[in-house]
Design goal:
single chain, Beta-lactamase, six-stranded mixed beta sheet, 17 strands, transmembrane, Penicillin-binding protein, beta-lactamase activity, membrane, Beta-lactam/transpept-like
């Protein structure tokens, strides 16, 4: 028997076991340490030295939106508190051991101090048995504008409001609290306000989840109105005629049409057939005597939302060219927003090329077009920013707890979609909508002082349901000066709310009027376009 050989083998075994043990310790105590501490099965995760003091969240002006406040009954001794529940779709909520949506989830490592140089400081804090400290986040949101948006969006009473009792607006809007609002600075891509309605109470949610009570969460999860759905970012809808804006951009920029291109009665009103199917919806009110003279032009067709003209514009632009502009607008692509979104789409889900009929119906916003409100805001912003699409953003900077800057997010250009001249012409068309076309009663009733340009949309959903009401808007619009671009955009939609001009139009007008009146957005107000003075000489009433 060779004793030396046996001792050597035994030594090898001990070495292997020692290496394995050391590797396991390194893996669980270093690599997976945070996971072990955070797991709901670890009772030590709620000790103060293991639970980070989560960073705060502020608006662009330093208004506190979220913080951790002491609570001896809460895990770690702190519970999250939100000062404005209407921002739940942006900020989300935080409760230990639960799913974390919104900024709270996407920037969890920042808020817990597990990223950047703060992570090193917190390793020292853990060694000294001190609570780790998170970093603070500043949003692009303006809390003053957010409050206005919430108040005005909810100020909607189609059954009793005198505006909805007029002959032109009667039965055009229906009660609905479901929808979205996005208010942006089109020149930076910054979101100034965002609403997802109906919402939920994040304070009640973190309190109940922290107590291990899932009743409120389950109530929200089963609610048929889907209050947990982040509608502006994750709900897709047919955009209706608001999408004619994308087709107009493509057709003007590619030279397919001009605003002055004439359309005779057949070209404007049909009949028009593609792939054996008739396109309907000239929306010109010929039978009612609203349009007595032809030809009309492309601007008139856009102002009055003529499906017949826009179906032809889509087909004449051509499938490849039309899709090229859609892709420039990041439709169907990663929009690179700070929070998770779903992709909008203008193509068949099965990968088959669009038929001519599908292209024609897509061109006026029906067909197989599915858009998120954020995507429609990106289209709106591109027009307002002279054809340049900015990356949408909601996080502006990250600081430590002493307000020392750690990271600043700068505005970023994504694409030059159309020329400056094309963008101005589209704005001119949008001004024709609100001054002479489907939205002209809004300024007449709610005031011309904000000089709002926009496009209405009434998206058919079938099944006998009311359509979704949309508007994409920008203000102030300046005639004959492409260099003075609108300072603000507002996109709003109301699910099954009816005609876009009335389902969300009055709310939008009230938002602009108050935001500008209070000076929250500094801009020069041009002379307003008065319908009776502007429309007849420009052949937008005929």
């Amino acid at each position: 028997m060779n004793i030396s050989s046996s001792i050597r083998k035994l030594t090898y075994i001990f070495v292997v076991l020692f290496v394995a043990l050391s590797g396991g310790l390194v893996y669980w105590q270093v690599i997976k340490a945070d996971n072990v501490v955070a797991t709901v099965h670890n009772p030590r995760r709620c000790l103060r030295e293991n639970s980070p003091v989560r960073g705060r969240i502020f608006d662009r002006n330093g208004v506190l939106l979220a913080e951790s406040i002491p609570d001896n009954n809460a895990c770690g001794g702190f519970i999250r508190h939100y000062t404005d529940p209407s921002l739940a779709s942006v900020i989300g909520y935080y409760a230990p051991g639960s799913f974390i949506p919104g900024v709270e989830g996407e920037y969890n490592d920042v808020l817990t101090g597990n990223s950047g140089r703060t992570a090193l400081d917190n390793q020292v804090n853990k060694t000294l048995h001190k609570s780790p400290v998170g970093n603070d986040i500043y949003l692009t949101i303006d809390e003053r504008i957010q409050k206005i948006a919430v108040e005005k969006f909810n100020d909607y009473h189609p059954e009793t409001d005198p505006l909805f009792q007029q002959p032109y607006s009667f039965d055009q809007a229906a009660p609905s609290d479901k929808g979205s609002v996005i208010i942006s600075d089109p020149h930076t891509g910054e979101l100034l306000a965002m609403i997802s309605s109906p919402g939920y109470d994040p304070n009640k949610l973190v309190q109940t989840l922290g107590d291990g009570n899932y009743d409120y969460f389950n109530q929200l999860d089963k609610d048929i109105e889907k209050p947990l759905l982040d509608r502006p970012l994750k709900a897709r809808y047919s955009p209706g005629s608001t999408f004619k804006t994308m087709t107009l951009m493509a057709a003007l920029d590619s030279g397919t049409t001009t605003l002055n291109t004439p359309w005779d009665k057949k070209g404007a009103a049909g009949p028009l057939f593609y792939d054996g199917h008739e396109i309907v919806g000239n929306n010109l009110g010929i039978e009612q005597g609203f349009v007595k003279h032809f030809p009309i032009d492309t601007e008139f067709a856009y102002a009055n939302s003529d499906n017949i003209v826009f179906a032809q514009l889509g087909v004449k632009t051509g499938l490849d060219k039309w899709l090229e502009y859609a892709k420039k607008l990041y439709i169907g692509q990663d929009d690179r927003f700070d929070l998770p979104t779903v992709k909008s789409s203008v193509e068949n889900s099965n990968g088959k090329p669009l038929t001519t009929l599908q292209l024609a119906t897509n061109a006026f916003g029906q067909g197989v077009v599915d858009m998120t409100p954020l995507q429609m805001s990106m289209i709106d912003n591109t027009v307002a920013n002279n054809g340049v699409l900015m990356r949408p953003m909601v996080v502006s900077k990250i600081t430590d707890t002493n307000k020392n800057p750690l990271q600043t997010m700068a505005p970023e250009e994504l694409n030059t979609v159309v020329s400056k001249d094309t963008a101005y012409q589209v704005r001119q068309g949008m001004a024709a909508v609100t001054t002479c076309g489907s939205g002209w009663h809004l300024s007449q009733n709610l005031g011309y002082q904000s000089v709002i340009a926009g496009k209405t949309g009434t998206a058919e959903v079938g099944g006998g349901s009311r359509p979704h009401g949309w508007m994409i808007t920008q203000a102030p619009f300046t005639l004959h000066n492409a260099d003075q671009m609108p300072a603000l955009t507002i996109v709003a939609m109301r699910e099954k709310g009816g005609e876009g001009a009335y389902a969300v139009g009055p709310n939008i007008w009230k938002m602009y009027n108050e935001i500008f009146a209070k000076g929250y957005i500094k801009t020069t107000m041009p002379s307003p376009l008065i319908s009776e003075n502007y429309c007849p000489p420009n052949k937008l009433w005929q």
